[in-house]
UniProtKB/TrEMBL annotation:
DNA-binding region per UniProt: 29-48
PROSITE patterns the record matches: HTH_TETR_2
InterPro entries found in the cross-reference section: Homeodomain-like_sf, HTH-type_Tx_Regulator, HTH_TetR
Biological source species: Agromyces cerinus subsp. cerinus
Alphabetical list of Pfam families matching this protein: TetR_N
Protein name (database record): Transcriptional regulator, TetR family
Keyword Ribonucleoprotein: no
Highest taxon of source: Bacteria
GO MF, one annotated term: DNA binding
Domain HTH tetR-type: residue ranges: 6-66
PANTHER family linked: ACREF/ENVCD OPERON REPRESSOR-RELATED, TETR-FAMILY TRANSCRIPTIONAL REGULATOR
Amino acid sequence: MDVRVERTRRSLQDALLELARERPLDEVTIAEIAARAGVNRSSFYQHYSDKETLLADALDAAAEAAAAMLPDRYEPPSGPPQALVVFLQHVDEHAELYRSVFGPSGSATVLARLRARIDAIVRAGFVSAASKAYDGLPLDIIAAGITGSALGVVEAWLMRDPRPSVDVGAAWVWRALLGPGADWA
């Protein structure tokens, strides 16, 4: 992608995330996003058809940035991987935005994009791990189970009031993914 296009998209994504920290997303206008990003409305529409697509890209970029921290070769960590902690830090910083995405009137489009990104990360990680733990199961089934479990725990952590720390949330996700056979002593 052209560097200028990427820079403009990143500016629009950052502007949306900043504005969504200040007030509910449905109150944020495209004109405000463009102004905060330092571009005009027509530039916004050159890159995005609507606010929902911009939001999907912004959350997708956050998941991808965290995934970039994963090692090329899987080594089982003793606790939650740093990439998971970094992703949950992003979720925590933008908690109201993520609550609106996961909530009952949230965006199916944005959530589907987030699910697809995490599914792709899980698939890549599982292939690099070369684990025999799921022999005989198709990769799409394994990835769907892990992705669904992870997002379910993230949503439950996110909706708690008060919300526990990022470290607690990451430990919950990690423990749920490892399952009942893991040694928690």
